From TrEMBL:
Keywords: Amino-acid biosynthesis, Aromatic amino acid biosynthesis, Oxidoreductase. The keyword Amino-acid biosynthesis applies. The gene is aroB. Residues 61-169 form the 3-dehydroquinate synthase N-terminal domain. The lineage of its organism: Archaea, Nitrososphaerota, Nitrososphaeria, Candidatus Nitrosocaldales, Candidatus Nitrosocaldaceae. This is 3-dehydroquinate synthase. Its EC number is 1.4.1.24. It is an enzyme of class 1 (oxidoreductase). It comes from the Archaea. It comes from Candidatus Nitrosocaldus cavascurensis. GO terms for molecular function: 3-dehydroquinate synthase activity; dehydroquinate synthase activity. The keyword ATP-binding does not apply.
Length: 363
């Protein structure tokens, strides 16, 4: 939940770095981020209206205090407040517990060199108390670690970020990333000869309704279902997405795209379910093999503009799209007029997988 913070939520608070703050804040809005760690005096009036600020200032919505005395004083005024503690010793753990006993709304835990054991101690000691545990993270990998300590994790993370990629990656780790999927109308289905297709074998068990976003255009991606359901001739392989032809794009957790031909063991890919909720999975193997292929074209309205996308996939009954009422449709049964789930937006260019503002026409 990006618009809520508290016990029971996994919240992301972004600390913007760099000089072009307002431009970065605009990107954070697009991702649904509401909480930022920043001096409110640096923000425009529109940003102040939208964002919830966390900072060492009385003007912040949530004040970060540096001592127990300051915390008590701020709380007595009725303001939301917490304590920042740099954990270096056992004494610092005791300070955190003391802050929780004084009804701190949150404790913000920082460490120059993260050690999991101190954080485990803090999580264990604050169980049953009302104070949220927030922790500093310098990158998305630290976010993933902090969210899984003792299988409980912290209540929120303050992520230092200078670009939107690390924020997007973190949202996937938090399973807070969502895509607005829509139904596109199939306009053409036909055999397209022989080509090379890529099977993405993950190190995760994928559920019915999950798949990967794949397509020939970066702004028009089909939700290709995994092989959790077998067929008359094949057993289920719930770790696999038979994704499509090697030229196709897939969307990665950091918001960039990759060609299927570029994906290899150890990469992290984006797994999306039919409701648009995303998570990540590690690639264990990619199988590229020559197979009979089929072309699918579909069309959808995006902000009043007709967008057309296509995909080439293996011509086999185990390759499935997701239709209305969550019906799985094999490409061998797909016909013109069917509706299938896609992620589509206005056309923009890509430079080495990064979205850029430029004219582009793809057919």
């Amino acid at each position: 939940m990006l618009d809520k913070i508290g016990k029971g939520y996994k919240s992301l608070i972004v600390k913007p770095l760099g000089s072009n703050i307002e431009s970065f804040l605009s990107q954070l809005r697009d991702e649904g981020i509401r909480y930022i760690y920043i001096d409110p005096s640096l923000l425009s009036s529109s940003s102040l209206d939208y964002f919830v600020t966390v900072y060492e200032s009385d003007d912040a919505d949530m004040k970060v205090c540096s001592s127990i005395d300051e915390l008590i004083k701020t709380k007595s005024s009725g303001k939301s407040a917490g304590l920042l503690v740099n954990v270096k010793s056992k004494r610092d753990e005791d300070t955190i517990v003391d802050a929780a006993k004084h009804n701190a709304d949150f404790v913000l835990v920082d460490a120059d060199d993260w050690k999991i054991i101190p954080l485990e101690n803090i999580i264990a000691k604050l169980q049953g108390m009302k104070s949220m545990i927030l922790a500093y993270a310098r990158d998305a990998n630290e976010v993933r670690t902090l969210l899984n300590v003792l299988q409980v994790g912290v209540d929120g993370v303050v992520l230092e970020a200078s670009d939107i990629a690390s924020v997007r990656q973190s949202l996937v780790y938090m399973q807070s990333k969502e895509f607005k999927l829509v139904y596109a109308v199939v306009k053409d289905v036909r055999d397209s000869g022989v080509g090379e297709r890529a099977c993405i074998d993950t190190a995760s068990m994928l559920k019915v309704g999950e798949g990967m976003l794949i397509g020939s255009r970066a702004n028009f991606l089909f939700l290709m279902h995994n092989e959790a359901i077998g067929s008359e001739f094949t057993s289920p392989r719930p770790f696999r997405v038979n994704a499509g032809a090697v030229h196709c794009y897939t969307l990665m957790p950091d918001g960039r795209t990759k060609y299927l031909s570029e994906i290899e063991a150890g990469d992290e890919v984006l797994i999306v379910n039919m409701d648009g909720k995303a998570r990540n999975a590690i690639v264990g193997r990619v199988k590229i093999e020559t197979r009979p292929m089929r072309l699918v074209k579909a069309e959808v309205d995006v902000d009043g503009v007709k967008e057309e996308g296509s995909i080439i996939v293996q011509n086999a009954e185990t390759i499935r799209f997701i239709g209305r009422d969550n019906r799985l449709i094999a490409v061998t049964d797909l016909k013109v007029g069917d509706e299938v789930l896609v992620y589509a937006k206005g056309s923009r260019g890509r430079h080495f997988g990064i979205e850029v503002d430029e004219f582009i026409l793809e057919k």
